[in-house]
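Human:
I keep going back and forth on a fold encoding question. Comparing notes only helps if you start from a blank page. Show me how you would write down a chain together with its backbone fold. Write it directly below this note and I will take it from there.

Assistant:
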Amino acid sequence: MSNLGAKLSRWARKLHVPLNSKDAATDPRIPELLREGRWIGMIYFDLVDFELTEQIYGTLYCRQVLTALDELINERAEELLAPHRVLEISRRGDDLVVYFHATHSPPPSGPELSRTAEQLRERLGTELSARCKHLIPTGLNFHVGFSLIEPDDDTRENAERALYKAYKEAVLVAKNQVDALEMERRRDFTDLLLNEAIHMVYQPILRMDSGRIIGYEALCRGPENSFFTSPLNLFGYAEKTNHLYALDRIARKKALAGLIELSGAMLFLNINPKVVHDPTFRADEIRDHLQELGTTPDRVVFEITERTGIEDFRSFRQSLEYYRQHGFKVAVDDAGAGYSSLQAVAELQPDFIKIDQSLIRDIDQNATKRILVETFLTFGEKTGGRIIAEGIETADELATLQGLGVPFGQGFFLALPAYPPPPVDVAAARLMKENDTQSVRDRNSRLGRIVPVGGISQGVTTMNIHTVTKDVVDFFTGHPQVEGVAVLGDDHRPAGLIMRDKLFNQLGTQFGFAVYTERPIYLVMDPQALIVENDTPVEVVSQLAMARPDHKVYDSIIVTKNGIYHGLVSVRQLLDAITGIQVEAARFANPLTGLPGNRLIEEELLSRLGGGQPFSVIYTDLDHFKGFNDRYGFERGDQAIKMTASILTEQVSRLGRPDDLVGHIGGDDFIVVTRPEVSEAICRGIIEAFDERVPELYDPEDRERGYIDSRDRQDRPVRLPLMTVSLALINCHPGHYQSPEELSRIAAGLKKYAKSMEGSVFVKERRHRPS
């Protein structure tokens, strides 16, 4: 063979092109149809990088993939090619050819054949990837080519050669990815730009605490039922064909026109980073256009998509600063999705940070995602960037985000994108209001108060005590993520616990399977499982769990409410909750006592004042603390403050509720927020415990004398009695008080009066307040 012949042979083998017409042999009926003057359609498929796939995953797995491909194409070809009739399906290696025909229909046009081939490629690729996910987790895709053999004299005379030529053409189309569909798309896209055939839909962005709409994101859509309906396809194609600026101008113009329908809310306008270099993207022109619409730049937020990398942050930041000087705001989109998101947030210092939906998806089930979102919240608080959670799609995601304190949210669960700009979904709005009080309490609980275990329990499927063991085995087999289930009696009270590993171990013994599979589950359950009430603090539950025998330490804990099954908590959830308490407490707590500081105290008071329910506030102050501190020094003074914090926490834990607050205002000033019906009992408990323990802080001789020698502010010698505590109690009914500052002023007067009395006392506000 000549050198040229050898090269052609290698080229043909590489592209899987037959070297002669015999290699393209098919069912004899196909050449016969060609001789009869009928048309034949051909679609060729080649698995992308299958040779590399075989190197990575091995020949055995790849053979199973090809077997699955054979089954799939034989099952679906007739359906996917209808109304055409499949004549033959031929596979060699990872190359597949489908021949088809229709007796009473004309041959398809080039674009029609291209569309059919593309649809087949997408459907087969999706379904094959799904079937083979356990073999090739990275997914599978096809190159696709096509050809049409139309009847003519040459075809009738040499049908085999016509088939061979058609086969080569289909292979080359697949390898070069040249198709008629691309040409048709180019024509459609040109018409789209010429006719400005796009429209805008708007999706609300809400305050998570109130459900109030603060803005709308403008989302661009192409013509319905077309390739360009999806914004990813639309803008991706625009960038691919160098028409991004032109498309963005149209989208920007149409989005801004919708501002007048947003009822004063902000407009979040998606901006590709490359667009800042567009000469027509000028802040003064946009500002003038907004003035014509009767609005101002501060209602427009340029949302920078993070998925397109920013190459020169310095230049880009300077460009954005130009728009900010004109009053526009900036948001970074898709933060946390990868690429340069963290750098974008750090470099651009945005007004809003939109957390990518990949971090929001299933956040209620993923502790790592919750930690990442908490990190963004901390970052936002320190830099002034307000956090928006994107892609909220379930009630559980919403509740979790509200519990974490995420201020703003957006997603299909809250409202679908639409035009005219839609309101919040009624069911979602109701759920947000129901969640709000609980989420504030949950969040503040993690910041220094008691966290009830019921707040982290999950309503996992339960089993009746008479359930047959094999049904429980089937359940565990079908739900591999479930570690354990509670076994309930007919009265819905817990009777025991079944843990997956222990059940399988027991059935795996010599006679275990034969003895137990057809018998009730109560014979193999643990009847001595740890059961706690839903208001038990997680710290207490943790201690109880760790005190169990070694073989039970990692068993789940059953949670009840008034003795009735409420949910299940795994040890991992328990540890996550305790870690969350420690992390959140460290973020906002007073560094000396670990109690919530002024910011969280103010949040709690505002929440209670607006909550429509009565509550009580106990302001606490130590008497003679300055003299004690001067006499014994700061270290002993810190001991006194920490002892006071401990006493307050103990009394509230004993008499109050899990959502009560003990806060440290600063120095020797503390606050308790609780319920009116227990407020006086808490005050008495604090006084009794304080008076009992405070002598321990003094030296023996001072303790015995009952006073210390000190000096007053005029430097005169004085004798100060042992420290006492003064409490100011205010019962707050709806509408009586308007702000934390008002409560603080009233408390100051009450404390002054209390300090004028001897010993530890509490003084209650009794003046009439108009409702």
The chain is about 45% helix and 20% strand. The chain has four domains: 14-178, 194-425, 453-580, 598-764. The longest strand covers residues 199-207. Confidence is low (pLDDT under 50) at residues 1-23, 439-449.
